Amino acid sequence: MAEREVDRSVSQTVKAQLALRDQILSGALRPGERISELQAVETTGASRTPVRMALVRLEEEGLLEAIPSGGFMVKAFSERDISDSIELRGTLEGLAARFAAERGVSARELEPLKECLAAIDELLRQVPISIEAFSSYVTLNARFHALLTELSRSPPLIRQIDRASALPFASPSGFVMAQSALPEAQQILIIGQEHHRVVIDAIENREGARAEAVMREHARLAVRNLRLALRNRTHLDLLPALALIKTAAD
Amino acid sequence: MAEREVDRSVSQTVKAQLALRDQILSGALRPGERISELQAVETTGASRTPVRMALVRLEEEGLLEAIPSGGFMVKAFSERDISDSIELRGTLEGLAARFAAERGVSARELEPLKECLAAIDELLRQVPISIEAFSSYVTLNARFHALLTELSRSPPLIRQIDRASALPFASPSGFVMAQSALPEAQQILIIGQEHHRVVIDAIENREGARAEAVMREHARLAVRNLRLALRNRTHLDLLPALALIKTAAD
DNA sequence: TGAATACGTTATGTATACAATAACGGGGAG
DNA sequence: CTCCCCGTTATTGTATACATAACGTATTCA
User: Fold this and answer.
1) Does the ipTM surpass 0.95?
2) Residue A35: CB less than 7 A from any atom in strand C
3) Phi then psi for A239, rounded to 5 degrees?
4) What is the pLDDT of residue A241?
5) How many beta-carbon contacts under 8 Å exist across A and B?
6) Do B220 and B177 sit in the same domain of this protein?
7) Across the interface, do A91 and B88 touch by the CB < 8 Å criterion?
């Protein structure tokens, strides 16, 4: 293979990582399936060295699992794994909110959060919400959670929350998409927005315990909704957990 | 270099990872210092490919930081980073204790925990505690925390706790060693043991909130003690955080 | 007929060669 | 004297060749 198309705008390692992640999350690679390096080389266009780096990184992200005899396989998640991951993330975000409240946050730092809040309010005014508005909601919600995390000013915590969000179903967008499958979707979004409002208020008033409690409740709500969504499996196309859920056995 | 001493009992990647971690934690590589791959190849005896894999893994562990222009440097931690990491870990362990309590644990599963507890009781009966006994304590305490984590039966949570413990100062042994520098060390160990006792009791009685609360208090105690230990910098030889603390200029 | 072993094939682990880029230093010009 | 540009050097990023271990298959012997 003499001529190889090389995209020099990003490193081969990053390119391979993105391509492989796509394949996993799109379901092209099934949970439990072994990933062949050679095959990955062909589909990603990178050579074996960057592919291997990407595989190691994806393992650390939690999308892959090392096989003892060598190589990697796509990790499979049970429904409980997924709900635990969401609750875990909520617990971490709760700690972030507590840190923000206890350590104090200036009005200027809170401003972007409030803008997010207002923008979401605007979107939710539509009944029923349009597809485009819902898409904007997903983006704004993710932004809100990211900003909130930043407010903790704690690099170790921020790092850990990022790691916990690497699993698609545990990310803020994952929450929302899972919830969108439910008939009560709009009502759920409104309750979530109420949580957002409370956490900002708690941080402003330096009520650490209240800020933490509401974020945990926020996650528990998401867990309940995910369970519901998985029960009546309707409109689950958007659910990013789907491709990773253990199929049979276990 | 024709003849290279190759230890075939473990993979070169693992060997390099262990060797580099040692170098970092022993302080041979200073925080902020760039790690040269070539140099790492010489000191570890592995070739560049496994060295690079090890570097990626150590970055994910949190011991290294990627340099935007390429390569890795030893991560530097502030005192607050360290205390946050401990509190973070305590929060995670709190969640694990809650899961264990809420999901129920059989008497048989609790048995090893109780054995740990009894063994530590035995050690603490010595006043003052001997060096050997203290060393045993460190091991037993780490075992206790690991067993408790397992009781959650939540792979995602266990995984996250393991990651949070990768930083030496955030591991159970790290807690203890930091505390050992204080004059009130023995009293502190006794209080910690009381926490251990309470969490088992709470899990047995399926009191999730109480189990969670005591583990968080356990960590907060560790944070307070770490602060004290860092204030009066006496006998800090054992403190595994030392090699990683930012020196000057935050 | 079944099981066990040996062999061949395939995939991963490792090493190294090559390419590209970023850092550093020197020299020249303003 | 200082600043900028260019060339050199060192270091990382990438590709590939080679070694080794695992798996499957076929054949043979009990």
Assistant:
1) no
2) yes
3) -70, 110
4) 62
5) 65
6) yes
7) no
